[in-house]
Design brief:
It is a single chain. The protein is of the alpha/beta class. It has a domain of 98 residues: Helicase, Ruva Protein, domain 3. The chain contains 14 helices and nine strands. It has a five-stranded parallel sheet. A two-stranded antiparallel ribbon has the order 3-4. The chain has a two-stranded antiparallel sheet with strand order 6-7. A hairpin with a 4-residue loop joins strand 3 and strand 4. Helix 10 crosses helix 11, helix 10 crosses helix 14 and helix 11 crosses helix 12. The radius of gyration is 20 Å and the shape is globular. It starts with 15 loop residues before the first helix and ends with a helix. About 3% of the residues have low confidence.
């Protein structure tokens, strides 16, 4: 395993600068291995790694754009346990979180944990899950735990990341819109475009090479990466700029009113956290305007819906955020 060496402060803990320096190396190792394992743009790889550092990720795109493969690659890179669920209309919350099963040997009901207890869980076509099942994911996504019908609580692994895929082109039968509370819990949203001729050829070459993704960091490294993100400095004026950008998007005439989750307290927090990761990925210790734009680009669009006028003008939520960021930052 290609891994950075740990540096301890005299008291046995990691000093602030050591944590950030180590995080620089962690991001470098992850970026290199994901790049070798995936056919995906540098920016989308960066956003994916940022999602791993700051929260859950939702990919939007058609079939064959690399959504599921990316989730598997991330799990292998960190040496974590990988879980997978296929979204279908008859999926029950307990199919994901777990359920009580009678043990004939002990004569008691025992709780068997579901795939949500993996370090990285990929949920394919989450929009095929009914609202009841989506609601069952709210507690584990936000609180890192599952509370059963018997009022027992089981903690998820420390990392506990969910990577979901959403296919907007799926056949409408058996498809459910994502509930607002569900969308709000995804920190990062990434729209993956269809592969062009060059990308298709690159995918073919990668598959032909049979490259095997290697573990390059540990889950402990990811934990320290999360700590490092919190230690990146963000000036008050940039925090205000992000806050203002969120309000401007929310009030844009192309955005459906009353549907967005931008006024949630999570929006600003996640946007600034991803901006901090962007700075860290560039080996900076302070956030700048470029990082703020990056944070907005991948934390705001999935929280809103465009209206009919915007669709007729062929404007997406990503376009609107880009335009506002370019004019206000």
């Amino acid at each position: 395993m290609r891994q950075a060496q740990e540096t301890l402060a005299p008291n046995g803990s990691f000093a602030q600068n050591d944590i950030i320096d180590r995080a620089f190396k962690t991001v470098e190792l992850l970026t290199g291995e994901v790049t070798r394992s995936m056919v995906m743009s540098e920016e989308h790889i960066k956003a994916s790694l940022g999602g791993l550092a700051v929260g859950h990720v939702i990919y939007e795109g058609g079939v064959g754009t690399g959504k599921t493969r990316m989730a598997k690659v991330l799990a292998k890179c960190i040496g974590g346990e990988f879980g997978r669920v296929q979204g279908v209309s008859d999926l029950e919350p307990s199919d994901i979180t777990g359920s009580y099963i009678y043990n004939q040997g002990s004569g008691k009901f025992e709780y068997f944990k579901g795939p949500i207890f993996a370090d990285v869980l990929v949920v394919d076509e989450i929009n095929r899950m009914p609202p009841k099942t989506q609601s069952g994911l709210l507690e584990p996504m936000e609180e890192g735990q599952v509370t059963t019908k018997r009022n027992e609580t089981f903690a998820l692994p420390p990392l506990g990341r969910m990577i979901a895929t959403h296919n907007p082109n799926a056949i409408l039968q058996g498809v459910y819109p994502l509930i607002e509370a569900q969308l709000d819990r995804f920190s990062v949203g990434i729209e993956l475009p269809p592969h062009d001729a060059k990308a298709r050829k690159a995918v073919y070459a990668l598959n032909k090479s049979d490259y095997q993704t290697e573990q390059v960091v540990t889950i402990a490294d990811i934990s320290r990466l999360r700590q490092a993100v919190r230690k990146i400095s963000i000036h008050d004026s940039l925090e205000d700029a992000m806050n203002g950008l969120i309000d401007t998007v929310d009030q844009h005439p192309g955005i459906k009113s009353g549907i967005s989750t931008l006024r949630s307290g999570r929006t600003l927090s996640r946007s600034l956290s991803l901006a901090a990761f962007s700075a860290l990925s560039r080996e900076h210790r302070n956030v700048d305007v470029e990082d703020i734009a990056f944070g907005a680009r991948y934390t705001i669009p999935h929280r809103v819906q465009v209206n009919q006028e915007a669709r007729e003008a062929k404007l997406t939520a990503y376009d609107i955020v880009e335009q506002i960021a370019a004019s206000t930052l």
